[in-house]
Amino acid sequence: MELTNEILTEGKPENWEKENVLPGKIGLTSSAFLIPIIVSDESGYERINEPVSIEVEFDVNCKNLAWKESVRIFDENFNEIPFKFVNQTFCSSGFLQKAILFFELNVSANSTRKIQVFFHNLTKIKSKEYSNFSNLVLWLKFDEGYGNLAYDFSGNENNGILYDANNSNNDGNTIPQWVDGKFGKALSFDGVDDYVEISHTRNLEPEDITIIMWIYPTQWNHNPIATALLTKRVSTEDGYFIFWYNTTNTLNWDWGGNAYRWNTGYLPSLDNWSCLSFVRNSSGRMFFVNGELIAFTSNSGNNVTTGSVLRIGMDTFQDQYWYKGIIDEIKIYNRALTEEEILSHYQQPLSIKIFPKTQISLISFEKVEALRNISYELLKDVLKEGYDFRIEIYEK
Length: 396
What we know:
The chain is mainly beta. It folds into three domains: 1-28 and 365-396, no CATH class; 29-132 and 335-363, Immunoglobulin-like, CATH 2.60.40; 136-334, Sandwich (Jelly Rolls). Helix content is 8%, strand content 39%. The longest helix is centred in the C-terminal third of the chain and has 9 residues, at 365-373. The relative contact order is 0.18.
């Protein structure tokens, strides 16, 4: 009698003939929850495809309220917003306890968006696949503040592992240290043997690319030849390499090997925060500082297919050129962002306020499905005698 249990809920058949009857009056509702969220721009700039990550507590006490596949996000006009799970914690029962969600949002200057996270505990619902809704392939916020793992908040699982390369020197044998950053926490590199490594994935070697990072260098020339910011190569003839070069005393960018080296002509000042953006497409390469275009070259470089790991703060070729200073908020896109988007990323992050969850009632898909398939005799048996009724269910 599983079908019987699906429809034997509150509500009487005489209510079915009333106009504007609520689904709850005929027993077709089930409980769900929503979490209201306000996202605001306070910078005065248009925010286009702005990456957003939120940590949501669905069910702190593990009362089996949230089934992972049921989670959905909607905006103020009830348009569905694609998202990815970055990290999640489950109750022993398999229900969701908390999670970090990633999505993108357009927010007008000095305005507010209202979004809502919906979820419930029905286990028969199918998971929703949002394929390729974002071009962001790596987002290291460095906000963990502890441990040896930096999560990829783009939802692509390109997580970074913190390393100390040499156990025999006198640097204290410590991995990069968690410190206060430009936004939240960040990582401090000692210039001796600290680095972050990300395993190879093909989406970190796109044809077009945008690399954004906040840096606070404390020294450039502690290495006699170069100081690496970010690199993915197995030799000098392949991959990409962003670094300070002693020959020019500026930042240089190899794309497809050192035969395609580009001198940006710029040196970030010491003991100051700078937002660096490196953009490449078939027309050439662009370099931005603090949202402003500093240099352009028509030398677009060569193909990049290395299979190498990606490292931050150390070269992947010959394990050298250690960076000294702080790094925060690294993003890599698999397309060339526009100048307007680059300027948007230079601004302070969007303001996010998460409100407590609220219980609501929704029409139950499972109960409607039960009514769709029920026989006249079974329905009469469930509702007992003395009722005249008719069931009509139409596709919308």
